[in-house]
Write a structure and sequence with these properties.
mainly beta, 14-stranded parallel beta sheet, 15-stranded parallel beta sheet
Length: 1822
């Protein structure tokens, strides 16, 4: 067979020569090149036009990477190959696509699932061209198939009778697997993108979930063997980036076809590894099927959407090897096997996908196949500039210093999009700290070169770059006992015992340990390491470990045992696929015991392991995740140890960062918010006064806790104190955990009512401002950085004003404070020119962010957020961001109560290339968070009230434009969000009005978790602009009483939903009225029935030329659906009919059955070929549709289900000009009937549908009783939540809808229609038609959306916003008058200066947005601030001008002494007068001094005194003591100065004391006659908690802390060496300026002690490198709590921390880290930063216990005995009571003393305060 294959390949090559005039190996070049030509210099050839399909839109410069030509620098400390863990893939097999099945919750929020149908594969796409329609090329193309094979049908065994006798050289007759093919049936393209498996680091081996088999790369081959779902291999190199490329490989089946089952070759994937959308060729081996699919969010996984089946007749041979080639060219994929073209698929979705990554994956659980000779090539040349990277190391802030480590990269140059993998290698005693990057001109990259996971991509914004790896001296951890980075020249002497030194190789910072040929090899740590461990403390052993290769073997880490022998130990064992705890006996001949085990993969991927030993329990963690735990039954008979073992010779294991730490106990810290009213502090459960949180919720003694308290408007912080111990002082909102603290501390935060201190507005000008300015209009700030200052808290009436024309790049606008109902805080523009622009540039997730703030108005801002990491040109289906969330405005709240008054108006939001895989990113978003533990909500119920989004333009935004509100306090169906309990606390008074949306990646406007929301006068065009899945322009979800009216929606893309409007499920009483929908690809209206949904109502709308289907009902049909008085027109038939029902399965999660629905008074205007039902489930929908009194116009025939059809052939006799409404809208104002437009849908004069309709009441009566003149009462459920309303008719969550129940619900559906129970929404009218006329003009309603006007409107006055109101009928008519306004409420523009009045502006009260500005008389502010002195006037802090008068009492400029005179023996002296140098005024007068004694008048020294008897001097500082001799005329005044300890302090003979080190020393001064005096000197020192602090420009941190050693000394000052780089306030708070660089910050104490740190100001955000928890293990009593603290590295990082518990039934954790014990057991608490850094704590929960020393005793009558307690849990438990069961026999006192009374027995019950009990049996004898 292989010979035949070879022969056939040669024939193909020969035919290609005949056809093209060239060989099969090279192309005919215009200018021949020599063999030394570089790959980048190859000549381009003209591509053949394979089909008539136009080339796909895409980047002009392909993003490719030539891995062969890049240079690789060897790392001194190479990282092991990283094998990424795969995402779980559903092994669903879909031979026929479910036309209505929507993917299950693909997105993070998982709460907005909608369902619609997908295009059936049997229906050809309109743009698809025939496979044979190729065109001639002007130059030969080696990839063009020879003519002799074009007409051949795909076949495993093609007829080859003409070639069977041909021979070829013997050495070419065999194709050896694993050796590159010498001859191929299709020539490789010239430039190699990826090749082979020789470099395993270029690949990610995917190990599927629950896999028991192997997936590995070895000897240039990738092999999958054995069970496991979704094993595979994925490209991990640079982006492939080609539009045309060829994938070639040898595929070998290792067994029968059924043993491989399903293989997928995935390409054009947006992401590495196994995630992301892709195109894939699927080889379904056991079905003989080969197809091309579009995979959704799962590379190689799942069935995907089938684009085309290429064949169902290809058979596979057992153990066969096949040459598989896949040619991808734009929109076309062609598959070849062994030279046979299987077929081609042309689809626009192929060319529209990303061009980045590649994978081969086996789909199902049985997999046995191998891939070799893989090569991916292209004929496209790299275009654009080639960029380079320069690598620099820095140590402890010193640039170009490799003392601390080196930096290497896999490539040093590349093109746009090419990725560079970095490897930082720290040296012994140092650790890698962070990256910094610079452009070629030396400026920072300003966030445009994100480095994540040690990788970055070249891009045009940064060009050539320099990347700096910062290393720093490693500082031992607070609780560290031992650490080894294996970077020293030899093994650490702390290893007391080493098995075989030759097998323990320490090189380049890695220990490689090999076993001995005869047994294990090991390193045993000296037990002295554990000598400082306290008895109550646990310990942690950790290390980074990995296998040096894939050889089978076993390693161990010992945690109990000896340090001089490997015998007798407890160990963790890793043997490749399992983790075990094992006990190895001291007797080497005895058998070891497996204690507990679990599946665990240990291979060449580095894993960080931790063993935590606390009490009797040991727990194993891998990369922060708990794997295994074991509790000893024998209380660990051997002592603590730490040892590393390799048990298998030849299977080497690598170790790094080996550490042992102690784990001290912690105390819990909690916070309580109180409100001070009438002198009493009352708990504020609703948080009326404010919000409080702690920096940590558990701590050890000596830890400092910071309290952050935020007062709401009208309140202020009164005080903070510790409830349990008022002796613990809270100073500056900080306190320290006292020594010996046990139990919980509760911080009481007290708020009290307060009057505002006065509104203060801040002005910011990016061009003319300076952050050193006061932020006034005259002297504005430059950036948002000062807003983060602790003194900047906005009060009611405050404003933040951004100068028009300003541009703020890479900054987030966030601030503290909030407004009030009558005085909101305003964020607005000032000045003239363009709107101020805030460009997040992808550096911030949310450009404008509000958190727990209310009464905020944001208006007149331009906001954009385009990250350079992904495509920034907004084209249809062009976004390739599937991972990074980006938003313009985000509003969030938690535990706040009711958040009121958030208004966002007139903002221009555009170009946000957010994450296509996450709905909750893009434009404007509101959410409410909550703590959910064990399906229980805790905290303060929170919602929004009075939300307005008005007048905004949102364009080019991915993925969503406006979404509000996602609330944890609202969940109406467990199947929708299984992580939250059922609850209903909706936001109210939500209005989205007058916004313009264009080119929105997914949904336009979604309101959810609301009651009574109003969406009106919005224009949404080009929604679902990206390939995002199921999206609609405007819709409510999980909402009650929503009104959507006066909106225009058109050109929504896709038929996966793709409608203009949607009434989505988990809702009730959703009303669609007065809307204009047209030209939407998916149709007019979607109505969902998957979750509880009641009474959706569609009335008085106009639909024109909406496509695909008119009404779609998905996942069921809701109870009480009513559709009436709509006019629906289409000039062409819609493919899937007027009514389309799909996916009506019934289960508790999704699909609530199919109910009767009601359709009347509608005009259906379609051509004669239009069908009413097509596709989906026509029989089901026919059974439930109730049609009555509808008009069927233009040729369409009514279905048999129509009870009273009105059939009219001539459309013109019914409508004035149907179909004449504009199909595009070049304005930003929606075209609706209320604006007197769309007149073509007026009823024509004499139309046969005038007065032919029925009222809603008549319709209800007819559908309920069959008599429209009867009566019927419907159910009013407007006050119920959607789920409670559903419970009225079919039960709630968990109820499975049976067929019988479904039938009953169909009969009852009319009872639950909306009818006239319209939503109670202010300002909404229900008595109008589409055009705003009364909807009943004549004797009966008309049919359709328009009511024929039977009178002429007159009277009334039109304004800028509203038409005139007819005096006859009371409705609006005519057009608006744009010149008629009402200006009433004038508000200050806050532009007054000190000397000139400002202006005030009123906004038109009618709501058109027009303004009127006039002078605000008397608003001049006057000068203020500054300080007048004796020399100068005060300088106004606002404008900088002098004002007022000098202050003669405020002297400056220093002082001088005049008139001083020394005393002599004959004259008195004078101390002198003090004068002000500035003004010359006398400040004080002197005093006289005594005459000096005459010579010879001497006396003996009676005493010596010092001016200080106690003093503090700082380390390194000096203090001068002054001695006085009495009497003053003593004869010998010589003195000697002595220090008692010169190691602490020295003193010279002038009395100057110098501090040497912290401590105490006596300084003694002696006279000649030994008279002396002593000063007790304390030398004080000060230390800082960081030596280096990274800080982002314009950011602040208060994390730098100083610790002063001496009591009585304190911090006196902080100073920066360069205030142009960083400033520091009096409390040590650091604030970076806009410049990058370094500065030294020095703290000085009052004693003169100093300490310094280096502050490095950088452009990029400071990110957390690692975190640790204050405890890695804790034991709690059931019901008790303890709070864990997070320790960040570096200290200035601020990422949000999220907390999770692995077992909420055992222990829960709050958002602040407070752990609460629930029941006995173990759980792992994980803290995770927003950038993915993790730390864990093992929590053991125990029940209270008490053990007695003895459980029985004997006592004689009249005698006593004492009950003694041996142990308790908790340890500090106390006895509550002793009780005797028979007091006549024995009594017991409160101290446990038992007294015998008479002969007999009695039981003494001991009850502890914890509730634990024990019984003591006492026997009394005579």
């Amino acid at each position: 067979m292989k010979k035949l294959r070879r022969i056939f390949c040669l024939i193909l090559c020969f035919l290609m020569v005949l056809q093209t005039g060239t060989t099969a190996y090279s192309m005919e070049l215009t200018e021949p090149k020599t063999t030394e030509t570089k790959e980048s210099e190859t000549t381009e050839t003209k591509k053949p036009e394979a089909t008539e399909t136009p080339e796909p839109k895409g980047p002009e410069t392909p993003e490719t990477k030539e891995s062969e030509t890049t240079e690789t620098t060897e790392s001194k400390k190479p990282e092991p190959t990283e094998l990424t863990e795969p995402t779980e893939l559903e092994p669903t097999e879909t031979t026929e696509p479910d036309s209505n099945q929507k993917p299950e919750t693909k997105e993070p929020e998982t709460t907005e699932t909608k369902e619609s149908e997908t295009t059936e594969t049997t229906e050809p796409e309109p743009t698809e061209t025939k496979e044979s329609e190729t065109t001639e090329t002007t130059e030969p193309d080696l990839n063009q198939k020879p003519e002799t094979t074009e007409t051949k049908e795909p076949n495993q065994n093609p007829e080859m009778t003409e070639t069977t006798e041909m021979t070829e050289p013997e050495e070419e007759t065999e194709i050896v697997f694993g050796i590159p093919r010498a001859v191929t049936h299709i020539a490789a393209l010239q430039n190699t993108l990826a090749e082979g498996f020789a470099d395993a680091s270029k690949w990610i081996v995917i190990k599927g979930s629950n896999s028991s088999g192997t997936a590995e790369i070895a000897n240039g081959t990738f092999t999958v063997s054995g069970g496991g779902m979704c094993n595979g291999v994925a490209w991990n190199g640079g982006k492939l980036g080609a539009n045309k490329f060829l994938i070639s490989m040898d595929l070998t089946l290792q067994g029968a076809a059924s043993d491989a089952e399903d293989i997928k070759v995935a390409f054009r994937s947006a992401d590495r590894g196994q995630t992301g959308d892709c195109i894939q060729v699927r080889l379904k081996l056991n079905a003989n099927k080969i197809s091309v699919e579009k995979g959704t969010n799962n590379v190689g996984g799942g069935a995907g959407k089938e684009l085309k089946v290429l064949t169902t007749a290809w058979t596979w041979s057992q153990n066969g090897t096949y040459g598989l080639d896949i040619l991808v060219d734009g929109n076309t994929v062609t598959v070849y096997i062994d030279g046979t073209e299987i077929g081609s698929c042309t689809d626009a979705q192929i060319g529209g996908m990303s061009q980045d990554y590649f994978a081969v994956v086996g789909q199902y659980s049985t997999q046995k196949f191998a891939v070799a000779n893989l090569k991916i090539t292209t004929d496209e040349q790299k275009t654009g500039p080639e960029y380079t990277v320069k690598l620099v190391s820095a140590t402890d802030g010193k640039m170009n210093d490799e003392t601390g480590g080196t930096l290497t990269a896999d490539v040093m140059k590349g093109y746009e999009g090419d990725r560079v993998k970095l490897t930082p290698s720290p040296k012994h005693g140092y650790v890698f700290d962070r990256y910094e990057s610079f452009k070629e001109d030396g400026t920072g990259t300003d966030g445009h070169l994100p480095i994540a996971d040690n990788s970055f991509a070249f891009n045009s914004k940064t060009g050539n770059v320099t990347v700096v790896a910062h290393f720093k001296t490693r500082v031992p951890g607070r609780f560290e006992l031992f650490y080894d980075d294996f970077g020293a020249a030899s093994l650490d002497p702390a290893y007391k015992t080493v098995g075989e030194a030759a097998g323990a190789v320490q090189k380049d910072g890695i220990l490689t340990l090999d076993a001995k040929s005869g047994g294990a090899n090991y390193l045993l740590l000296n037990k002295d390491v554990f000598s400082s461990l306290k008895s109550e403390e646990g310990y942690r052993i950790s290390a980074d470990i990995w296998k040096a290769d894939m050889k089978a073997g076993t390693m161990q880490i010992a945690f109990r045992g000896a340090d001089d022998s490997p015998n007798g130990r407890y160990v963790l064992v890793l043997n490749g696929d399992r983790a075990l705890f094992k006990s190895a006996p001291a007797d080497s001949d005895a058998t070891s015991v497996d204690l507990v085990n679990k599946l665990f993969t240990f291979n060449t991927k580095k894993v960080h392991v931790e063993l935590e030993v606390v009490g009797k329990t040991v727990t194993f963690f891998a990369d922060g995740k708990e794997i295994l735990s074991y509790t000893s039954q024998d209380d660990w008979p051997i002592g603590s140890t730490a040892g590393l073992y390799n048990m298998t010779y030849g299977s080497k294991v690598c170790f790094d960062n080996f550490m042992v730490e102690r784990m001290p106990e912690k105390s819990a810290v909690d916070v309580k918010v109180l409100l001070r009213e009438n002198g009493a502090d009352v708990e504020d459960t609703e948080r009326k006064g404010g919000i409080a949180e702690l920096s940590a919720y558990s701590a050890v003694e000596g830890d400092e806790i910071t309290v952050t308290a935020t007062a709401k408007a009208g309140y202020r912080l009164a005080e903070c104190y510790i409830e349990e111990n008022r002796q613990i002082t809270v100073t500056d909102n900080k306190f320290v955990i006292p020594s010996g603290q046990k139990g919980t501390l509760t911080v009481a935060v007290v708020f009290e009512s307060s009057e505002p201190s006065g509104a203060r507005s801040y002005y910011i000008d990016s061009a003319g401002g300076d952050d050193a300015n006061p932020g006034t209009m005259e002297r504005p700030w430059k950036s948002f950085a000062p807003l983060a200052g602790e003194n900047v808290v906005l009060e009611p009436g405050c404003g933040i004003y951004l100068k028009r024309g300003s541009v703020f790049t890479g900054q987030q606008l966030a601030f503290s404070g909030m407004g009030s109902a009558d005085a909101p805080v305003t964020v607005d523009a000032y000045g003239e020119g363009e709107l101020p622009r805030i460009d997040g540039a992808g550096a911030v997730e949310n450009v404008v962010s509000l958190y727990n703030q209310q009464y905020i108005t944001i208006q007149n801002l331009e906001i954009t957020n385009t990250t350079p990491e992904f495509k920034s040109v907004f084209t249809l289906n062009g976004n390739n961001n599937t991972s990074k969330n980006l938003r313009a405005i985000n509003v969030s709240a938690k535990d706040f109560g009711v958040v009121s008054g958030i208004h966002i108006k007139n903002c221009y939001i555009h170009d946000v290339n957010g994450n296509n895989n996450a709905k909750w990113n893009g434009g404007i978003f509101f959410d409410v968070q909550a703590t959910v533990t064990n399906m229980q909500l805790s905290g303060v119920p929170t919602k929004y009230d009075d939300v307005l989004i008005e007048g905004c333009t949102i364009r080019n935004v991915d993925r969503s434009a406006i979404k509000l509100v996602s609330s944890a306090w609202c969940n109406q169906w467990i199947g929708n969000d299984g992580g939250k309990p059922m609850n209903w606390y909706p936001s109210t008074n939500v209005v989205v009005r007058g916004n313009y949306l264009e080119k929105i990646g997914g949904d336009g406007i979604t309101t959810r978790d609301t009651d009574g929301a109003l969406i009106e006068h919005n224009l949404a065009r080009d929604c679902r602009y990206q390939n995002t899945g199921y999206n609609v322009a405007i819709w409510p979800f999980q909402a009650a009483n929503t009104v959507i009216q006066y909106n225009e929606a058109y050109d929504t893309h896709s038929v996966q939903d793709g409608q203009g409007l949607d009434c989505d499920h988990a809702s009730s009483y959703s009303l669609m009225q007065y809307n204009y929908s047209h030209n939407n690809e998916g149709g007019f209206m979607l109505i969902m029935g998957g979750y509880p949904h009641t009474a959706p109502t569609v009335r008085y709308n106009v639909s024109q030329n909406d496509c695909d289907k008119t009404f779609e009902f998905a996942q069921g049909l809701p109870m009480g659906t009513m559709i009436y008085n709509n006019t629906i027109y289409s000039e062409n038939p819609v493919k899937k009919g007027l009514f389309y029902l799909s996916n009506t399965s019934r289960n508790q999660n999704k699909g609530r059955g199919v109910k009767d629905f009601y359709v009347f008074n509608n005009l259906f205007c379609y051509p004669s070929s239009q069908t009413t039902y097509y596709g989906g489930e026509p029989d089901n929908i026919k059974a439930v549709i109730n049609l009555y009194n509808n008009g069927w116009v233009g040729g369409i025939q009514p279905p048999t289900e129509e009870a009273n059809p009105i059939v009219i052939a001539d459309t013109a006799s019914v409508l004035v000009s149907a179909g004449s409404a504009p199909e595009t809208n070049d304005t930003s104002v929606p075209r609706t009937g209320s604006a007197a437009e769309l007149e073509g849908y007026y009823l024509a004069e004499g139309a046969p549908v005038i007065d032919k309709g029925i009222t809603v009441e008549q319709a209800i009566a007819y559908f309920a009783t069959g008599d429209k003149d009867g009566s019927y009462n419907t159910f009013d459920g407007r006050s119920l939540s959607p789920s409670k309303l559903e419970e009225q008719y079919q039960g709630g969550w968990g109820t499975v809808i049976t067929e019988a129940m479904d039938q009953q619900n169909r009969d009852d559906s009319i009872k639950y229609v909306m009818g006239t129970n319209f939503p109670r929404v202010s300002g909404v009218r229900y008595d109008l038609d589409f055009f705003g006329n009364r909807n009943t003009e004549g004797s009966a309603p008309d049919i359709g959306a328009a009511e024929y006007l039977q009178h002429t409107h007159s009277g009334g006055t039109a304004t800028c916003k509203k038409r005139a109101v007819c005096e006859i009928c009371g409705v609006e008519y005519g057009k608006i008058n744009p010149d008629v306004h009402s200006f009433v409420d004038y508000k200050s523009d806050n532009n007054a200066t000190c000397t000139e009045d400002g202006t005030k502006t009123a906004v038109c009260a009618y709501g058109c947005g027009a303004t009127d500005t006039k002078t605000d008389v008397g608003s001049a502010k006057g000068h203020h601030g500054g300080e007048a002195t004796c020399q100068a006037k005060a300088v106004c802090e606002a404008c900088g001008q002098e004002y007022g008068s000098k202050d003669p009492t405020n002297h400056t400029g220093g002082t001088e002494l005049r008139n001083a005179k020394e005393a002599t023996v004959t004259e008195e002296g004078y101390t002198g007068d003090t004068y002000c140098k500035g003004c010359g005024a006398v400040l004080s007068t002197g005093t006289k001094t005594d005459r000096l004694p005459k010579p010879g008048d001497t006396e003996d020294v009676e005493s010596v005194t010092l001016d200080k008897t106690e003093a503090i001097v700082g380390k390194g500082a000096t203090l001068t003591l002054t001695a006085a001799i009495n009497p003053s005329n003593a004869g010998d005044k010589s003195l000697i100065w002595v220090s008692s300890d010169e190691k602490v302090a020295t003193v010279d003979q002038n009395g100057t004391v110098t501090g040497v080190k912290a401590g105490r020393a006596d300084i003694t001064v002696k006279a000649a006659n030994d008279k002396s005096a002593v000063c007790k000197v304390t030398v004080s020192s000060v230390t800082l908690n960081a030596k280096t602090v990274p800080l982002q420009v314009k950011k602040s941190t208060a994390a730098l802390k100083a610790t002063v050693s001496a009591k009585g000394d304190s911090v006196a000052s902080w100073k920066s060496s360069n205030t142009k780089i960083v400033k520091v306030d009096s409390k040590g708070k650091l604030t970076a300026t806009s410049k990058t660089g370094k500065a030294t910050v020095t703290v000085t104490t009052k004693s003169g002690a100093k300490a310094s740190c280096t502050v490095q100001v950088q452009k990029g955000k400071v990110t957390t490198k690692s975190i640790s928890l204050s405890s890695k293990k804790m034991t709690l009593l059931k019901g008790k709590s303890e709070t864990l603290a997070v320790i960040r590295n570096p200290i200035s990082a601020t990422e949000k921390i999220t907390w999770t518990s692995s077992n909420k039934k055992v222990a829960t954790v709050s958002s602040k880290g407070k752990v609460t014990a629930k029941k006995a057991g173990t759980a792992t608490i994980t803290a995770k930063t927003s950038n993915g850094k993790k730390a864990t704590c093992k929590v053991t929960v125990k029940n209270a216990t008490v053990k007695l020393a003895k459980t029985s005793g004997t006592v004689k009558v009249g005698k006593t005995l004492q009950i003694k307690i041996k142990s308790t849990f908790p340890k500090d438990d106390k006895v509550k009571s002793y009780k005797s069961s028979n007091k006549k026999v024995a009594t017991v006192d409160k101290n446990g003393k038992v007294t015998g009374k008479k002969k007999g027995t009695a039981n003494i019950t001991v009850t502890m305060k914890s509730g634990a009990k024990a019984t003591f049996k006492v026997t009394v004898k005579k």
